[in-house]
Design a protein that fits this description.
Blueprint (H helix, E strand, L loop, with lengths): L1 H37 L1 H9 L7 E5 L5 H8 L3 E5 L3 H11 L5 E4 L2 E2 L4 E7 L11 H9 L10 E8 L1 H8 L4 E4 L5 H5 L8 E7 L3 H14 L2 E7 L13 H9 L7 E8 L2
Parallel strand pairs: 1-2, 1-7, 2-3, 4-6, 7-8
Antiparallel strand pairs: 5-6, 8-10, 9-10
Helix pairs in contact: 8-9
Length: 264
């Protein structure tokens, strides 16, 4: 009887902990959304320098479509890629009848096929296909109590396949929680302009992405920190310089985006 009571307590405690984390995460998400709303005009101005009217944009890791909506506002056509069923339902509700958006229920990787996606118990934006990234953000203290307790097998396409089907994008956003290198391994031509997320506690992934882009063509780079829609450098840098700048990031759990523009 005592063992049953102990087991019941552990289950209740685990559920209580998950509920508290979800409430905390929801509060953070609401605060983040409020900040985004207040900075919407700044975000539009920032992206206007990268995305022109009529551009084709790949939104890789679209989640619930906030960036897809912004790209539409800039006059772009958007291919939104997202493998999570819960997020796909929201994308369909928001954009299912919009002729400017094509929703693709797939992940993107180095080759076509199927892969395992670890689903976050707390927040869909941090579901990931990289166990190494999950371990890094837990051990760094950013998400020490979060769990990815179940996984699903999802279909995977490549950037090369997407380009063959939809055309070459004027801009490509990659936000896939530690799987950025694999996404870029699936393209064999230089893209005109793109961004990919970096994480200071998983910096080797960002450095590997820079090396992959260098192998494809000549690029110049800049970067943002957290959700600040302003470039951290007054000028665009080569691969060596931005690698040095990223390695000097002051906090182990810092994140942001690297932007790359192909020369010529």
């Amino acid at each position: 009887m005592a063992k049953q009571e102990h087991a019941s307590f552990l289950v209740s405690f685990g559920q209580w902990k998950t509920d508290i984390l979800r409430l905390h995460s929801r509060a953070r998400a609401l605060l983040k959304k409020a900040k985004k709303h207040l900075s919407h005009a700044q975000s539009l101005r920032f992206h206007q320098a990268l995305i022109k009217q009529g551009y084709l944009v790949f939104d890789i890791g679209a989640n619930v479509g906030d960036m897809t909506a912004l790209y539409l506002e800039l006059g772009a056509r958007v291919v939104s890629l997202e493998p999570q069923e819960e997020c796909l339902r929201i994308l369909e509700k928001r954009f299912g009848r919009n002729p400017g958006v094509t929703i693709v229920p797939m992940a993107v990787g180095a080759s076509e096929g199927e892969l395992e996606l670890m689903i976050s118990d707390i927040r869909s934006p941090i579901s990931s296909m990289s166990r190494q990234w999950i371990a890094a953000v837990k051990s760094s203290g950013r998400f020490p109590y979060y769990e990815w307790s179940h996984s699903v097998t999802v279909p995977v396409t490549t950037l090369d396949s997407l380009i063959a089907q939809y055309g070459e994008p004027g801009f490509c956003k990659i936000d896939v929680e530690g799987f950025e290198q694999e996404v870029l391994q699936g393209v064999s031509r230089p893209l005109a302009c793109l961004s990919f997320e970096y994480h200071a506690e998983f910096l080797q992934e960002a450095i590997a992405c820079l090396e992959l882009l260098r192998a494809l063509g000549e690029y110049r780079f800049n970067y943002t920190i957290e959700n600040r829609m302003v470039f951290e450098s007054p000028r665009w840098m080569d691969e060596e310089e931005i690698s040095s700048r990223l390695r000097l990031l002051p906090f182990p759990s810092l994140q942001g985006d690297v932007y790359a523009r192909r020369l010529g």
